[in-house]
## 1
Amino acid sequence: MADILTVTRQALLGFDVELVDVERAPMGVLRVTIDRPNGVRIEDCEQVSRQLSHVFDVEGVDYRRLEVSSPGVDRPLRRPADFVRFAGQRIELRLHEPVESRKTFVGLLHLESEDPARFSLHWQDDAGQQRVLPFSCDDVDRARLDPILDFKGKKR
């Protein structure tokens, strides 16, 4: 069997999408998560699904059902390029090692330097003080976007 991640990446080279994740789920489900700078449309998912179905058949990738979707509003950040792209956004960050007795922080992501990739998280402590947490991608256990959503809508 071919390496699914490599096969998927190669199959999507001609598409205007970014491969976020490939995951094997129970019951033979293969989940492919894609993203675009202006958001994923249903047509993008359909095109990618058709392309991957053909490629996976040719490459002998074993699966029962293929799911192609967007990463959603709480998109995971995995690569340094993800952190660079979403600088200025609110994120939830979980570190491998605790800093001041905590591993999880929520705040605004800032790019400090690109080479080497260094970032900082501007967050507020329990006393309401603004704090800055410098980090690199090697320090991160997991990270995701953490937008504030307003479901109130317009008043009539």
## 2
Amino acid sequence: MPRIELTTHVQAVPEAVFDACLDVDLHTESMGSSAERAVGGMTTGRLKAGDAVTWEARHFGLPWRMTVRITDYRRPHGFTDEQTSGPFGRWRHEHGFTPIPDDSSATLMRDVIEFSAPMGPVGALVASLILRPYLQRLIARRNTYLAAALAGHPRSAMRGAQDPEPSPHDQDRR
């Protein structure tokens, strides 16, 4: 099963980063390149434990629809969203937020995503070769956007959401 791990340094306290990551409107703004929008469940505001949201977007030129539910909620340390219906055989996204010891106003945001594609061995090959790198870039762009927005730079956040690849100093890929 493909796994993606990303870490992002964010110049904001964990509570602010936690809240921003659960903000439906901010998520929609950050995903401008795929025209993602909330169409069901919680369609605006901040998600909380047990909430679900249905997203519609365009990826690879195709319409996608996915519903996720917040299955774990530990403010401000982390939360998990999991697909309840959608294109993946499995989707589980853990979000973690750790204060940076040397900087009381900064957070290390960690994303761990495990997913699988339907269609057996063919889907596994597509997930590994195409979906994993695509999703890693997509989440990295979203994180760049969130970090810029939390630092008070919304215009640079919008540019960051459109860039195909974040700069190396913004992301630590594993």
## 3
Amino acid sequence: MDSNLWGHSADSGYIEGQDLIGYAVEARDGRIGKVDRHSVDVDAAYLVVDTGPWIFGKQVLLPAGTVERIDHEEKVVYVNRSKDEIKGAPEFVDEHGAPDSNHFQLLGGYYGPIV
């Protein structure tokens, strides 16, 4: 598995150019929401997940490296983190349309290297 937290791993099933918006997002222990938007920028790829009522409508940013696999037929993105890990992540506040470098560093420290 690729060790880059901010890039899709080669075996995740990500297809270049594939629109993931609206896909359900499944943590290790259950559904957490749906993809609101995503970025595929080199070394800065991520998903913004709308958690809906699960954690009071909070939006979270998940580095692309947390994507374990993508089921395009069922439109589900599986991530290799638990609901609690995602719930405890620093909140993503969408003030400028994209995260800044400080938020990337904060999340990189929180999620740590891909295992």
